[in-house]
Amino acid sequence: MMAGPLSDFRKAISKLSRIDKNSADAARARDAVLTKPAGALGQLETLAIWLSGWQGKHPPSYDHPQVVIFAANHGVCDQGISAFPQEVTLQMVGNFESGGAAINQLALAFGASFSVTSLELDNPTKDFTKAPAMDETECANALSTGWNAVDENTDILVVGEMGIGNTTVAAALSAAIFGGRGTDWAGPGTGVSSEGIQHKAKVIDDGLLRHKDILDDPLKILQCLGGREIAAMVGSILAARQKHIPVLLDGFVATAAAAVLYKANPESLDHCIAAHVSAEPGHGKLLKAIDKEPLLSLSMRLGEGSGAALALGIIKGAVATHNGMASFADAGISGEKAD
Ligand SMILES: Cc1cc2ncn([C@H]3O[C@H](COP(=O)(O)O)[C@@H](O)[C@H]3O)c2cc1C
Ligand SMILES: O=C(O)c1cccnc1
């Protein structure tokens, strides 16, 4: 094993916690006796069983849902790859702090705690077409920030981001991890034109070429082509795994963070559900590559954890029905007729 700033994270990825089969079995057994035809609550049933297994307890809980979002700036914005200027990242952090963003309202609607963590907004990462975006220590620090943001008593975690330029970064990571060129993964993001998308694709190709020698190492891909908020999301998803906390994945950018872990160890996302598929065209493709079916498809394309926060409502419904419904025996209702 390579020593160095990233080695603790490499170790964590190679020693993942496992699902608690006893809790999942207990949930499956209770699900089978609830007052409904078998399977009639569809994915709400499988979600309750999945939650129990990954929370490592039965019944599953929805007492402390947590939304964590991370904000950072990207040197690759110098290449003119976003419809918005970089200062919007800081301005939106102000909006998150005063409760005015979409994610604030969604977290509030589903009773989740909310925090935003800024990662050196006045010190963008390096332009990945010219140099590694981060050095190993910077990348490890961002991973640690994400790791430490996850509360011990969280029962379901949403991770999200704010960082002008980060759909270009997510597309570069996707291409580095799963192959293809910039045109396969670049999309409009905040709203660049079709020429803008072509330009993004070229910038991504330049980055892939510059870093061609490290493309077999997912954490080096993160360091060279990623960003601080994306590394922080990687750290949070990994911390959640070690703390037995299931995770809802958001859009293209959050899923690109998750894909770094998938590339390192495909089992590392078993505690994660894809909450939605974003309208950003690369996202559906990326979900297929990590073998995840999204719960929702609502043409959202915001980031901030917004699609994942919306899916908290589904998780809340799954826990409420699983934990609160009567069994056939309790309610004195006749079971299914024998053939
Ligand atoms: C006002 C505003 C609020 C946002 N909230 C999330 N994003 C999203 O858009 C950005 C990525 O798009 P691109 O790669 O095209 O820059 C990220 O900050 C992402 O979180 C926003 C973008 C804007 C402009
Ligand atoms: O799907 C996303 O994560 C996304 C899409 C557009 C802009 N920002 C984020």
Automatic annotation (TrEMBL):
One of its GO terms (biological process) is cobalamin biosynthetic process. It comes from the Bacteria. Pathway: Nucleoside biosynthesis; alpha-ribazole biosynthesis; alpha-ribazole from 5,6-dimethylbenzimidazole: step 1/2. It catalyses: 5,6-dimethylbenzimidazole + nicotinate beta-D-ribonucleotide = alpha-ribazole 5'-phosphate + nicotinate + H(+). GO terms for molecular function: nicotinate-nucleotide-dimethylbenzimidazole phosphoribosyltransferase activity. SUPFAM superfamilies: Nicotinate mononucleotide:5,6-dimethylbenzimidazole phosphoribosyltransferase (CobT). Keywords: Cobalamin biosynthesis, Glycosyltransferase, Transferase. The active site is at E304. The keyword Transferase applies. InterPro entries: Nict_dMeBzImd_PRibTrfase, Nict_dMeBzImd_PRibTrfase_bact, Nict_dMeBzImd_PRibTrfase_N, Nict_dMeBzImd_PRibTrfase_sf. Its EC number is 2.4.2.21. The keyword Glycosyltransferase applies. It is an enzyme of class 2 (transferase). HAMAP family: CobT (MF_00230). Catalyzes the synthesis of alpha-ribazole-5'-phosphate from nicotinate mononucleotide (NAMN) and 5,6-dimethylbenzimidazole (DMB). Belongs to the CobT family. NCBIfam families: cobT_DBIPRT, PRK00105.1. This is Nicotinate-nucleotide--dimethylbenzimidazole phosphoribosyltransferase. It comes from Sneathiella litorea. The lineage of its organism: Bacteria, Pseudomonadati, Pseudomonadota, Alphaproteobacteria, Sneathiellales.
